[in-house]
Inverse folding.
């Protein structure tokens, strides 16, 4: 799937009980799906010490965790808890029924400490193992991490030719677009239910403004 060199291989099974003992697992989180995980493996460590890469300013290591699930539905809250408490960037490989997904969180450093906050996750569909392919692209770990995020996000973070945009700017733009699209859909639903013509006209004017804003954001 990744074609990583043997120097990155760790291949250590993480016993669930021991793994959870090092995480803050609330009763709600346990009830909400922690038992849906069957097995956790720490497959690889991508770092300057394991590959011919320079260290990044933000990214010092990228861990590759393979999680085998008892259910097809991946509980994002579990990933957030893992990402919150492990001070490295993590590429998750999910397996269920012989199919795989790759997940990665877009993480930003929090002010004043070494912790990271996951803004959102990007992931593939469920694919056969030989269909899931990610390339290690970049000369340093920051660039490799950005490449992973962009590969998994696909068209969501696709850059227009000739437009220079940082990963942070691309994520912020995609979030703003998603928010506008939700506002447009909600307003359209209100318009369909509204009986008074004058209110329909007011809402249609607002809808036009939102659509114009969305058009300007599509590069």
């Amino acid at each position: 799937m990744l074609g990583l060199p043997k120097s990155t291989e760790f291949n250590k099974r993480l016993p669930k009980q021991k793994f959870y003992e090092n995480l803050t697992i609330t009763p709600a989180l346990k009830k909400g799906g922690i038992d849906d995980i069957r097995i956790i493996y720490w497959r690889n460590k991508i770092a300057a010490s394991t590959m011919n890469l320079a260290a990044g300013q933000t990214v010092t290591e990228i861990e590759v965790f393979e999680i085998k699930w008892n259910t097809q539905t991946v509980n994002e809250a579990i990933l957030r808890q893992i990402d919150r408490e492990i001070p490295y960037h993590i590429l998750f490989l999910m397996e269920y029924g012989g199919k795989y997904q790759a997940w990665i969180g877009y993480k930003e450093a929090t002010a004043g400490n070494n912790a990271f906050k996951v803004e959102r996750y990007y992931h593939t569909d469920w694919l056969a193992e030989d269909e899931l392919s990610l390339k290690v692209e970049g000369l340093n770990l920051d660039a490799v991490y950005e490449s992973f995020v962009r590969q998994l996000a696909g068209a969501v973070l696709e850059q227009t030719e000739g437009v220079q945009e940082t990963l942070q700017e691309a994520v912020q733009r995609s979030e703003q677009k998603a928010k506008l699209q939700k506002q447009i859909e909600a307003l359209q639903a209100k318009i369909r239910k509204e009986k008074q013509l004058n209110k329909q006209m007011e809402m249609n004017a607002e809808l036009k403004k939102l659509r114009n804003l969305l058009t300007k954001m599509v590069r």
The first strand starts at residue 9 and ends at 13. The two ends are 32 Å apart (CA to CA). The mean pLDDT is 88. The chain is about 35% helix and 25% strand.
